[in-house]
Amino acid sequence: MRRFVAAVIALGVGVALVSGCDENGGSTSRVTGSVTYLLSQALPQDAEVYVVLEDLSLQGKPVGIIAVQSIPAGGMQVPVPFRLEFDPSRIDESRTYSVRAEIRVDGETRFMSGQTYPVLTRGAGNVAEVVVMAVQRTTPVTPPLVGTYWRLTRLGGRNVIAVSDTKREPHLTLVTEMSRAVATGGCNQLVAGYVLTGSNSIRFSEFASTRMNCPDVMNQEHALEKALVASKSYAIDGTRLTLMDKAGAVVARFEAATPDDG
To answer: In 3-state terms, what secondary structure has residue 61?
Structure first.
């Protein structure tokens, strides 16, 4: 379990519900605001500000994600503005909604909010002052390659698109049974065989896939499949898995995580 250090950074998120139309003429709403902290320094080069509007009303189940924005913020000064756009028909006045934010560096969460900050309904108002704490970095226990749920964090040199409209988080899992690899880029399930040959060597066969059409993530999913097939070696550093091609170039990075069974 992550422990929080005593140092606390203020992350101010000013929000206002605004209605408008999307590019196809449909009705949309948005929560806007900014993310900041009280340090006089720029964000690291690999920093990403990750902001989520979520439904907290489903007791005993994972939160329902209404909108997500992932902002490449390397070298930027705070405050970092954000805009979360969503279909207003998804908002139910009887439910509870909250804004959550993290600051990630190279896919690893460095700062995160430690409590919920309601917005939009139940008299919550239109401004949330969210506080995040620096996550203490401890020496991790190295997870095994096989049997670990590896959450996709980087694909080639690109950030991973966060998925709000499907239940599938981009990830890879290698299972012992029949030496199967199961993956997704956020939409379809990809299944292939894998072989571990020699020290840190790995080979994937061609992947079979389900046939759902998810326009927002199809390019990412095809890129993940291509990266896995091109993989020839791997390295595990703490809780991070890196896959490399035959030339040693990084094709994908993952972080050991807990699967979302929702």
So the answer is: coil
pLDDT in tens, 217-258: 888 999 999 999 999 999 998 899 999 999 999 999 999 988
> What is the DSSP pairing of strand 202-204 with strand 190-196?
antiparallel
Contacts of 145 (CB under 8 A, 6+ apart): 174, 196, 234, 236, 241
Point out which residues pair with 56 in neighbouring strands: none
Which is nearest to 104 in space by CA: 55, 66, 171, 160?
A: 160
Give the helix/strand (H/E) hosting 221. Answer: helix 218-230
Distance CA 229, CA 40 (A): 44
The pTM assigned to this predicted structure is 0.50
User: Going edge to edge, which strands form the sheet with 17-21?
Assistant: 17-21, 27-35, 80-86
Which of 183, 199, 191 lies closest to 235, judged by CA? 199
Distance CA 16, CA 91 (A): 14
Q: How far apart are CA 185 and CA 163, in angstroms?
A: 9
